[in-house]
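Input record, target 12 of the design panel.
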């Protein structure tokens, strides 16, 4: 009986002193013996063979992008990577409108050649009649007058429907992006690999510097992808206006021999499509003293606004994929 008690006592001491790791192998550990080794790197948890193609583990924290990332723990004190996931964009552009168009009176020029048949005139001398810019048709006087015998024809240009000015609305342009999740990875300096207990709030994760990384290793099943930032730009197309549509601008221009537009005078009707010309086979027998004009049709039309559209795109850069061991 005493012999049996000694054998049991010896067996108990052996069990207390070590943890079996298979036939002929025992690892020492503190506390009650366990079925697996007490080393945190037991069963190859720190062995690259369990995560072929992946870089050795770092400690990863992730949380809301509104949170401040915690400081790296003492066992992995250096920030290895900081990034984000869950990119979203917000864009809004000002409205666009067009100001009014306007019918403008024609310009009038005298020529020292008969310009009513331009195919026969190689290089005419132009004698412009002094009209104010944006002439409204009120009496305009030449001072001095364009004398008789100095010109052979008078050309009346087409009327013009002026372009519409683009108007940008008061709404602010919004072109911004945000992230849903923030991540911070920490590691130990040099070539040290983390294999000890994991700090609270962190997970041990292998990693690859790419977005389309292969499936996570079995020992690190929880996948997290982050980006170091964005590239590209967001904006709005500028406001612009097309040509006036439906415009009708017909003007009757009267030519007076004397200054001051006194009395009646013959008139020439010009439109948006058709200029006018009057000439003589020789030098003009009359002076050109003053002009006045009236609108027969004054319908400048309207313009269609374009622009104010959101354009551009953002793409994530510096992608990083982590595969993490589940705690426990």
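The sequence produced for target 12 reads:
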């Amino acid at each position: 009986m005493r012999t049996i008690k000694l054998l049991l006592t010896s067996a108990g001491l052996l069990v207390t002193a070590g943890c079996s790791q298979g036939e002929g192998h025992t690892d020492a550990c503190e506390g009650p013996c366990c079925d697996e080794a007490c080393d945190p790197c037991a069963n190859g948890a720190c062995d690259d063979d369990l995560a072929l193609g992946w870089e050795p583990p770092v400690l990863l924290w992730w949380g809301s992008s509104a949170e401040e990332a915690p400081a790296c723990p003492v066992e992995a004190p250096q920030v290895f990577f900081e990034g984000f996931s869950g990119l979203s964009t917000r864009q809004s552009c000002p409205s666009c409108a067009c100001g009014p168009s306007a019918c403008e009176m024609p310009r009038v020029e005298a020529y020292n050649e008969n310009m009513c048949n331009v195919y026969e005139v190689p290089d005419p001398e132009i004698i412009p009649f002094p009209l104010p810019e944006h002439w409204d048709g009120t009496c305009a006087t030449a001072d001095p007058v364009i004398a008789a015998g100095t010109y052979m024809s008078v050309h009346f240009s087409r009327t013009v429907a002026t372009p519409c000015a683009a108007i940008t609305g008061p709404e602010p342009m919004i072109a911004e992006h945000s992230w849903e999740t923030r991540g911070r990875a920490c590691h130990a300096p040099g070539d040290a690999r983390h294999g000890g207990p994991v700090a609270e709030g962190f997970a041990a994760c292998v990693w690859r510097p790419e977005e389309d990384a292969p499936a996570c290793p079995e020992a690190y099943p929880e996948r997290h992808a982050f980006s170091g930032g964005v590239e590209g730009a967001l904006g709005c197309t500028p406001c612009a206006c097309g040509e006036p549509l439906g415009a009708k601008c017909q003007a009757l221009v009267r030519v007076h021999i004397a200054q001051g537009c006194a009395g009646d005078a013959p008139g020439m009707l010009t439109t948006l499509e058709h200029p006018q010309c009057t000439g003589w086979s020789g030098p003009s027998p009359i002076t050109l003293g003053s002009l006045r004009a009236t609108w027969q049709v004054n319908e400048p039309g309207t313009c269609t606004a374009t622009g104010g559209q959101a354009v551009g795109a953002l793409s994530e850069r510096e992608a990083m994929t982590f595969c993490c061991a589940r705690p426990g």
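Residues 1-19+28-38 form one domain.
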